[in-house]
Amino acid sequence: MHDVADIHPGLFGLDFNEFGSWNREALIEKIQQNDQASGIFTLSWHMPTLINDGRGNNSFNDTTAIVVKHILPGGRAHQLFKSKLDLLVTFLKEISNIPVIFRPFHEHNASWFWWGKKHCSVREFVQLWRFTIDYLRQKGIHNLLIAYSPNHISSDYFERYPGNDYVDVLGVDMYFKNHAIDIYEHGLSPLGNWKKNVLWLLNAAEEKNKIPAITEFGQEGSWYENFWTDYMSWPIEKKGLQQILNGQKVPKRGVAYIMLWRNDKSDPKHFFGPVAGHMNNSNFKILIDKNIYLGLP
Fold first, then answer.
1. How far apart are CA 152 and CA 162, in angstroms?
2. Please, what is the Cα angle at 146 between 112 and 254, to 5 degrees?
3. Tens of pLDDT along 216-231?
């Protein structure tokens, strides 16, 4: 991003599997550097399965075994789950002076993670969420903003909502792929549907007194010609919202942040943010020149 637009991202999103002696020091150093530069930090935890029935690989997306009911209080793996939470507590205490947007059990309305909707009941998911947040609070962790982030916006958005006392940020994870798939997934007008989804999120956040955010976003390769100004910029600008609303009241709260997914240096085709030499960099520069996003020098 700096090579393209002379700024660094203002948001540092970290997504990982395990805390350990091999990565803790590097993670903390990076988080502290980001904080000292006035960056925002968000944390997502892809916890391993914890329960292996012999068919899977114990990874975060191993859905061969039922997990949630066994790690809840009274379950056979509950103590193991608490030991994992204790690792998180230790880590968070080392950065207790830094605000953290914590995004647990994300994309739960899909089923590609062991906490997904096909792998646990509504009651079990809500209990898992509340137990996790309560446990962290009881251990003295008070520097967290908790983000709720389903995969896409649909009628079941609040189906597994754990309650206002357990959520600070209302988010959504939304990706775009290509014209055919996007029409299949988002309707005949993917861009129009995206704008309506942003508006719905803003209104829901205002109603519940929460912070609205696009918690994951992007298009691999960013190859739509005006992706940055159409999909990332236009729908969240006041002028754009006014056009969608056609004279109705614009929500008071705009989107607080948008988190692009990673640029993978090991795979030159797997990137979601701007990269040097890309054909759409001029469009990204137009986005930055609007001064609606705050980057770091």
1. 18
2. 100
3. 999 999 999 999 999 9
The residue ranges of DSSP E strands in 134-205, in sequence order, are 144-148, 169-176
Closest C-alpha among 175, 52, 158 to residue 108: 158
| Enclosing domain of residue 239 | 179-209+220-297
How many structural domains comprise the chain?
Answer: 2
**149: nearest Cα among 221, 215, 71:** 215
Pair (134, 194) in one structural domain = no
Q: Is the pTM of this model over 0.90?
A: yes
User: 150 with 29, same domain?
Assistant: yes
Pair (163, 185) in one structural domain? no
Specify whether the CB–CB gap between 84 and 50 falls below 8 A. Answer: yes
pLDDT in tens, 261-291: 999 878 888 999 999 999 999 999 999 999 8
CA dist list (Å): 119 to 12, 49, 111, 114, 232: 30, 12, 7, 6, 33
Q: What is the CATH number of the domain that holds 81?
A: 3.20.20.80
Model confidence band, residue 188 (pLDDT cutoffs 50, 70, 90): confident
Question: Which amino acid type is present at position 228?
Answer: W
